[in-house]
Each structure stands twice: as structure tokens, then as C-alpha cells.
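Quick start: read one record
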Amino acid sequence: MAKPIEPRLELKGQDTKNFSRYIRNPSKYDTPDGKRILREAAALDISIIRRL
């Protein structure tokens, strides 16, 4: 039997600093397109849940 895949993210150097900054204030890095995509995803999620 195959071993389950264990997802893991490893950041180093500047990537670690960038990620920490983002996690502290993600809305600072939102773009208009990113916000639109999240709104569309949320609307799709609600419509799928209503169908259940």
C-alpha cells in the first residue's frame, strides 16, 4: 500500500519574510482582481450549498 502524501511548505530567506508580512496583514496585498475572484468563489460556494 502506498504511503499517504504529507503536504509541506518550506520557505527560506526572503520568502519567509514576505510570507510573515503577508500573514500579519493579508488585506494590504489584495488587488481588485483578487477581491473579485474571492467574491465570485464565495458566491459559487453559497449556491452549491443551497443545492444540497
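The chain has a mean pLDDT of 87.
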